[in-house]
């Protein structure tokens, strides 16, 4: 099995005057409200265990105060943990000295912020190549790489402009170009599209997926928006009160929520638009009975409903990369559109 690009093990973060003493109480079973009321400490993260695979987008989501932004800031040690391990390519980030940590931030991780974080007195081209300048590389290298990625994000011709002359969406494109120009393997994106208007936000999501299909970066993306999470994630991690409630492949979470919190979270989702054929098909290479044609494994169910004209007696051959991988029964598609309750075990765990 491939080694995770980033691996988090037993990560805790407690804010307060004596976090190590408070950690003892948390490990003994004390929850976030009681810890604050009794000991005046805030439980930021509780026993986080997540593997982030190379070349995938890991989305960490939750409501405000869930700990998602706290978590991402631990990866490059902008925040120091109370306990736990953070491994990048097998290297323990907690053991890096100041110079090694600075080097990791310069070369192995780039970050895209919600508020753009551009230098207002520098041109778009200067901003895009800033990571190269910070490393001490020449102006020619910084400008070449900056221009290359500005072109890729659709900002060719704006190199001499200043951030204030650009729209919010264009400024965020500069931020993405800057992160890509660093040529780092890992991109950290903290609520990167949250400040944008809905239509621009959709365009930025599409741009990210387009670039990712080619570049295969390891991306850790923070959001509070479930639609965005389901669209972008290869691996989805859902936090509540600093703890992981459920993680896994987004389609699997949508079909099999294991906690009442997740059930509530996904209740208003347009399942037909989000669920894919591969998630509800029967895996088979046999000829379908009453075959009405072919659909692709990654088609969403909404498109199949339109194709079938609502006829639930139809079956479709499911294709992927030119070969049959399954059979889609329209009756199974219809069942998948009905929200499922959490399993008994999940409900008991949530109530415990």
Properties at a glance:
17 helices, alpha/beta, six-stranded mixed β-sheet, 14 strands, globular, disordered C terminus, 40% helix
Topology (SSEs and partners):
Elements: E1 6-15, H1 19-27, H2 32-39, E2 42-52, E3 57-61, H3 68-75, E4 83-88, E5 91-92, H4 98-107, E6 109-112, H5 124-128, H6 130-134, H7 139-152, H8 168-181, E7 186-190, H9 198-215, E8 218-223, H10 226-232, E9 235-240, E10 243-248, H11 250-255, H12 260-266, H13 271-274, H14 277-280, E11 282-283, E12 291-296, H15 301-308, E13 315-320, E14 323-329, H16 330-336, H17 344-351
Parallel strand pairs: 3-8, 3-9, 6-7, 7-8, 12-13
Antiparallel strand pairs: 1-2, 1-4, 4-5, 9-10, 11-14, 13-14
Helix pairs in contact: 7-8
Question: End-to-end distance, in Å?
Answer: 34 Å
State the helicity in percent bands: 40-55%
Q: DSSP helix count?
A: 17
Large-scale geometry: globular
Instruction: Indicate the proportion of strand residues.
Output: 15-25%
Category by helix and strand content? alpha/beta
Number of strands: 14
Q: Main sheet?
A: 6 strands, mixed
Give start-end ranges of low-pLDDT stretches: 342-352
- Largest sheet: spatial strand order: 6-7-8-3-9-10
| Average of per-residue pLDDT values | 90
Computed CA radius of gyration, to the nearest angstrom:
23 Å
């Amino acid at each position: 099995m491939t080694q995770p690009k980033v691996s988090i093990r037993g990560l805790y973060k407690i804010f307060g005057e004596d976090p190590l003493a408070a950690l003892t109480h948390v490990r003994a079973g004390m929850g976030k409200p009681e810890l604050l009321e009794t000991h005046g400490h805030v439980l930021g993260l509780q026993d986080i265990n997540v593997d982030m695979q190379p070349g995938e987008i890991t989305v960490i989501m939750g409501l405000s105060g869930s700990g998602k932004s706290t978590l991402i800031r631990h990866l490059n040690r902008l925040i120091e943990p109370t306990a736990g391990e953070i491994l990048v390519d097998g290297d323990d980030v907690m053991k890096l000295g100041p110079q090694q940590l600075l080097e990791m931030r310069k070369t192995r991780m780039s970050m895209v912020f919600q508020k753009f974080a551009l230098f207002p007195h520098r041109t778009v081209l200067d901003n895009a190549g800033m990571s190269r300048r910070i490393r001490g590389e020449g102006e020619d290298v910084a400008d070449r790489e900056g221009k290359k990625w500005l072109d890729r994000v659709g900002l060719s011709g704006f190199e001499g402009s200043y951030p204030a002359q650009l729209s919010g969406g264009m400024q965020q494109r500069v931020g993405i170009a800057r992160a890509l120009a660093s040529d780092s393997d890992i991109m950290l994106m903290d609520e990167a599209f949250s400040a944008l208007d809905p239509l621009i936000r959709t365009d930025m999501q599409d741009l990210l997926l387009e670039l990712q299909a080619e570049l295969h970066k390891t991306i850790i993306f923070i959001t509070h928006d479930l639609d965005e999470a389901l669209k972008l994630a290869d691996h989805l991690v859902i936090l509540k009160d600093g703890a992981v409630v459920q993680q896994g492949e987004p389609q699997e979470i949508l079909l099999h929520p294991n906690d009442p919190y997740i059930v509530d979270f996904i209740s208003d989702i347009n399942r037909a638009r989000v669920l894919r054929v591969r998630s509800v098909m029967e895996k088979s290479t046999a000829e379908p009975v009453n075959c009405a044609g072919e659909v692709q494994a990654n088609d969403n169910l909404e498109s199949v409903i339109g194709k079938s004209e609502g006829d639930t007696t139809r079956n479709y051959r499911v294709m992927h990369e030119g070969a049959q991988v399954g059979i889609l029964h329209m009756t199974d598609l219809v069942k998948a559109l009905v929200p499922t309750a959490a399993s008994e075990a999940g409900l008991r765990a949530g109530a415990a």
